Structures are given as structure tokens and as C-alpha cells.
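Quick one: C-alpha cells for this chain, please?
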Amino acid sequence: MALLRSDSITVSYGGHAILDQAGFSIEAGERVCLVGRNGAGKSTLFKVLNGDLQPDDGQIVRRDGLRVARLVQAVPDAGGRRILDVVADGLGDIGSLISRYHALTAAMGSGEEQDWSRLETLQQELEARDGWSMQQRVDTVLSRMGLEPDLEFGTLSGGMKRRVMLAQALVTEPDLLLLDEPTNHLDIETIGWLEDFLSSYAGTVLFITHDRALIRRLATRILDLDRGKLTSWPGNYADYLRGKEQALHAESEQQARFDKKLQQEEVWIRQGIKARRTRNEGRVRALKAMREEYRERRQVVGRADFSMQSAARSGRLVIEANAIGHSYDDGVLFEDFSTVILRGDKVGVIGPNGCGKTTLLRILLGRMAPQTGEVRHGTKLEIAYADQLRSALDPSLSVMDNVSGGSENVTVDGASRHVISYLQDFLFSPAQCRGPVTALSGGERNRLVLAALFCRPANLLVLDEPTNDLDMETLELLEARLVEYSGTVLLVSHDREFLDNVVTSSLVFEGQGRLREYVGGYSDWLRQRARPSPRSGSGQKAGPSAKADASSSSRSSARKLSYKDQRELDALPDRIETLEAEQTALSERLADPAFYQQDQASISETTDRLAVLERELDAAFTRWETLSSD
């Protein structure tokens, strides 16, 4: 029989059915991914399956002796406790005995006063309750997951804490493991470890995630929660996407036919005396049933549909970093790194937690000086930094006031919009707009951050983990908008598919102070790093043409420029700024309607000069990139 089966379970909040007679089953050895919109009820279903919440109707049928363990999104505050203590908590009372026994033996081993009677009592309790086999289980899980038992839990990184919580779930040797957003706040290296671990895990897994790469690799079946109903989609994620689209299209067509029939029947029932004489009572009853069915219909939840506001174009050069480096007491973050970021580049920043990604961003943005090297900015930069906006969300204010600063309107692309209308593009209802930020879920808060970000004109977007908690459709819309965006993007993310779909180049922290630049996204980095290159080094200078070749040339191995070439290289930045200033002035003249009241010769002279400037700028940048990469 199945490990677990749900029979028509219903859970309602405030008269709204989160789960509406939902039914499904899970067989041994499956890896099932539960997908659905933010707020659809996925976490609620997990609580029901784990026994933390009883359904209003229906039942959960479990195989006799079924062991279920759940990894939740939130990481608890474990104070000064050790990893072993937190992992042993998964065993309940026996786990507490194991923790106390280890703490006592450690204290006695360090020369503290020996309490033999207390130790003997603990040993007897462990023997009576088969505690020694439980301790062996704890030791095995700790070893398998590479965890040091005596390290303090509170000192660990977010990713390591998640690993400890997974160990706590696994120590019970569950038949069914429930994972709720297991990759949230994990770095790419830890996500890869988790994938490898779960792909070889012998038990059954039901997991919720927004990480599409994880779904593609792990899921043997997709379980879709939509408007309270559960549907099962065998096969991989791509099969599910195709099937779901077809099902929604068929539903839309069926509803259109139903609505047309209902409209016809409403016309019939409202006809005059002649029609009423010939009414068919069965037809009247059928119309009443149709009306009730229409009232009970749950429409497909709307999709986010936002756009991104652009500022005036920046200069072609956005950021130039020359041989920058930075260190802290515990080691070098990066050294001798050079790069050129041009207008329109989409640059990903990849690396483990704590490697220095935020420090790099602050240095590139000029908010922190590098210890070595220098950073130069181009002209007319207008920066929007998502991390600043996230930390600036005021929980005491309403959702709309966090975006508009207390005003009723926001200005988007030069047009005034009511803030509630604007926020509805991000799927906030009017009631939510007037409510406090504290009432929002994690995904809704992240959408609010995007709403606050995108109503500010900017030509350089800096996004720090923008995908956390976003549902798939919003995530894919954000991808599309970033690809279409005409400005420049700096993006820190651990979402591998998001990086692959958006960025044009990647700055990767590879350890031991090595920061390198690669063409493309995460998958491109994996391919390129495997190929040895005689030109690879710890730092590189890469303009667009250099990026298209290898983007990993070493300054230490570069040939020395001649005196003439060096003088030319030194003069080029000033020449580019002069050309860009003239280009801006001419563009402003062309934007003035009065300009076109002149004679045609003057108009042609100006437009021709603008075309010449564009060619001269292209030539100057090409020459600069050539000299910089030599």
C-alpha cells in the first residue's frame, strides 16, 4: 500500500478553503515536488501531513508505523547549544538523554569535578530505552553530513544551520521526509551538496521549492496545488509545465462555453409573458444550478504584470575596477581583480556565503574604498539597490506607505498612478495595500521590495537575492523584465537557473582570494572553469570583446605596453568623457521640439555630428579594451 494517502481533506481559513477536498497518495521511493502559488496552502498541507494540523474534513491514511519528519523554513534560535544537542532533539526525550550524557562526559574529561552517580544514572536510562543505538544513529548522521558535534550552533552560517536542521530530521530515519524550501538562504555550493545528498537518499521525499534546477534534477513527480485542488503530474518538470498550460487552456475554453450558455439562459428567463407560459421547470432548475456553479467558481489567480522604470541612459562606461583587493583579519577576500562593466551588461556575482560578495558590491558602487587598486564610475549613474530597500521596509507602516512614502500616488515612467493600482500589478489586493507589512508572507515581502525598487528611476540595478520566496510565475516575469531592461544589472543570486537566464557575465569567488570573471551564467562558469587556460590568473580586465573571448586574462602575464600605447591608454578615459558629454548635449538639443524649427541644413549638420560621435565612441572603447587587455 501507499506510504500515505489523503482522502478528500479540507482546510478552511475564514470561510476560504485552502485545501478543498484534496486527495493524493505517495508511494515509497518517490521524490515528489509540491508546487503552487504563494499562499496557495503548500505549508498548510505539510502541517496536515506531519500531524501538526487536523483537517476540517477528510482524513490522512498512513501506513502502520510510518515515520514522518519535516524540515521547516525557519531556523530556530538554539542559544549556546552544540550541533549534537540540536540534532539529538529530533529523537525527543532520548535525544535529551544523549545530549546530557555527552555534556557530562565532556565536562569530566576536561578535569571538572566528577559526578559518577549522575553519569551512572544516565547510562542506566540510556540502556533501558535502547539509547545506545540512538546515539549511534546520531553519530552516523553527523559523520555522513560532515558536522562537528561540539561546534556551537549559533556561530554557524545560515547554510550550515540548515544542514544541521536537515540532520535533525534525518536522525529519526523517516520513511517520508518533508522539505519546505530547503534551498532558501543556501549558497550554490551547499545547494549542490543537498542535491547530491537527496538524489542518493533511500527514503521518500516530498518537497516545496522555487529552485527550478533542483526540481529538474530531483523530482520524479509533480504535485500541483491550485485553488484548493491537488493534481498529480507524472514525469519531469518540463512535462508538467506543458501539461499544466494545456489544462488551463482547456479550462478557459470550457468556462467560456459555460458562460455563453448561462448568458443565453438568463436572456430566456427574462423574456415576456409568452415565454413565461412555456417555461420548462426543469430548465429553470438547471439555470439555478448554473448560477450556483458560477458563484462557486474559483478563478485562476491573476499574474503579476510589472514593468521596470528606466532613468536617463548612463554613459557607456558604468564601472571600471583596476587591480582592486580587500582583506580582513581572517583572510583575503579577493586581490588584484580588474574588470570593466559597460552599459547594458547583466553581471552575476557567485560565491559561497561569507566570501565577500556584499563587500565587492559596496566597493564597485563606491560605498567602500578598496584596500588596494581603484574604482572609477562612468557618467550619469542612477543606482537602485534592492538590499537597501529591503532593510528600509518599515513594519510599522502600511504596505502602500512603504512604497509611496505616505503619498496617494507614485510616478512610473513619467506618469502618475494611484499607489494601490500600482501595487495590484504586484498581486497586492486593496486590503493588503492598506494593511501592515507584518501581515505579509516572505514571498509577498519580496514582491513589495520589487515594487518599491521598480517605481524609482534607475539605470543601474543592484539586486541581492531577489528570488527568495517568489512563486514560479513571478520569478519568470522578473527574469523577462531584467533581460529586456536597457540599463545595467549587478545581481547576487544562488538561483542557478535564474543566473543562466539573465546574466551576460559572472564574477565568481573561487576561494583563496581568487575572484574571476567568466562569460555567461552559472552553467557557463562550470564549463569554462574545467578547461585549463595558460592565461588564467587571479585577476583580469575584461571589456565586452575580451569577455566574448575568454574573460580570464591575467594582468601578471600581460605584455608591457610601449610608452606610446601607455600614453594613449591613459588619455582615453578623458577623451571618452568629452565625447559622451558632447553626445549628451546634442541628444538634448534633438529632444527639444524648437530644434526642428531651424533650416534643414542645420538639422542635418547636428544629426550627422551625432552619428560621427557614436562611431568615435565605439572606436575609442574598442581601442581602450584592446590596450587594457594586452
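The longest helix spans residues 237-269.
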